[in-house]
């Protein structure tokens, strides 16, 4: 795509000459390919420019003044709109060209794209809150399950300890009963021995 700049090389207006120089000089600084089309010496260029400038962009007398800027057949604007685009760092958008990587306009477009994505993300804050709430509920349920498992484990341990204590108590009672039986048997044997001795003594008399 070639940028077309319609200008008047033999214009007697100092203001028009300055505006034309500003446009051409800035395009050269940006290394944008363009073509100068003279309307002063070429009637065909002058007629084409007048016919293709939109009616709403023409002055009250209906005759647009140079410089007028086109991208091939598409109208871009006049000096005033070009100057505004230059001030806003949107010249490439004004010309209908993609900004080169690393340029101010490219960085600005990237920043605006990021801001737009952020805005889209903020349009549905309820969804984010809902997702966060669901995640939090899941974590709380997991923690409750862990606590129940911990309490169940502690209850099992206490039951095991109680059964162990009961078993030890029963063993001690059984041992105590065995000891009592042995003591009673020993007492009976001693009584029988004493009785036998007494009978022996009585028999001797």
TrEMBL record:
Per UniProt, the ranges with Basic and acidic residues bias are: 119-134, 151-168
> Sorted alphabetically, which SUPFAM superfamilies does this protein's record hold?
Thioredoxin-like (SSF52833)
- InterPro entries per record: Glut_rich_SH3-bd (IPR006993), SH3BGR (IPR051033), Thioredoxin-like_sf (IPR036249)
May I have one GO cellular component term?
A: cytoplasm
Q: Which residues cross the membrane?
A: none
Per the UniProt record, one Pfam family is: SH3BGR
Q: Entry's Gene3D superfamilies?
A: Glutaredoxin
What family name appears in the similarity comment? Answer: Belongs to the SH3BGR family.
This one is known as SH3 domain binding glutamate-rich protein
Organism annotation: Poecilia mexicana
What lineage is on file? Eukaryota, Metazoa, Chordata, Craniata, Vertebrata
